[in-house]
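To the team - phosphoric acid mono(formamide)ester complex, inputs and output below.
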Amino acid sequence: MRHLLTPQDFTTEELNTLFDLADDIGKHPDTYSHAMEGKKLATLFYEPSTRTRLSIETAMLNLGGRTMGFADAQSSSAAKGETVADTIRVISCFADIAAIRHPKEGAAMVAARYSSIPVINAGDGGHQHPTQTLTDMLTIRSLKGRLDNYVIGLCGDLKFGRTVHSLISAMSRYENIRFVFISPPELRVPDYVTDALNDLGIPYEEVTRLEDALDRLDFLYMTRVQKERFFNEEDYVRLKDYYILDRNKLSLAKSDMYILHPLPRVNEIAPEVDDDPRAAYFRQVKYGVYVRMALILTLMDPASLNA
Ligand code: CP
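Output:
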């Protein structure tokens, strides 16, 4: 049985197979519309979500399967004190595959340990968000045709942004990737991430001003400041509008630089940027459904990775 807890759970070859499948799903969706008939997906969301939960559910529905679950811990028996370990053992009796989002780092790993069905990590605290990373990578590959040889800028809350940590870790495995980390000093990328880059010899620089990075980026990955992970409101209010990408700033960027964002957006990208052809964040959402369809098919039949 395979789970998806971090992007590292798949080799680069397996990721290529997954992305090829996602491409084919995007081109020929009808071919896959009965592939999960009779199967059930459970979504266990202990934290708010719009995209990830509905994208995973849409993926299962597009494959002809059915979905069940909860979108709020308070409406589940977690409110009575049930542990993730017990909940997943129960859900394993109901469903064929499960996706879990939880505020605690490592919750998906605990779920996988006690599960008898494949588990998808849909975000664990400030740690990882691997299905968003698969979405980001499929978007990059679809827009440019490859996953290597880029300067990738990541901007905003690099401390708490789990999508950032997952994307850095996943893209580090490709040739000639350089990172530019753009954040206020308080929201720097964690040391464990930069330590890993140092160990791998992957170049990165850290800057505080977006204007100092824009002209050399192939992709700019914007993120919101993660209000829910702050310990006090005052710090959040001080930092929340630190970066606002507008048309004026975007004029400093290359004409073929793409802007990505995992969404939800708060203030960090001005709506006037949405019409710029380089704004790819709503296209990203569509790729998210294709790649999650490919992921469900793959976890339900892991042998397909070696076919
Ligand atoms: N990108 C993302 O995780 O969005 P949601 O929080 O809406 O799922």
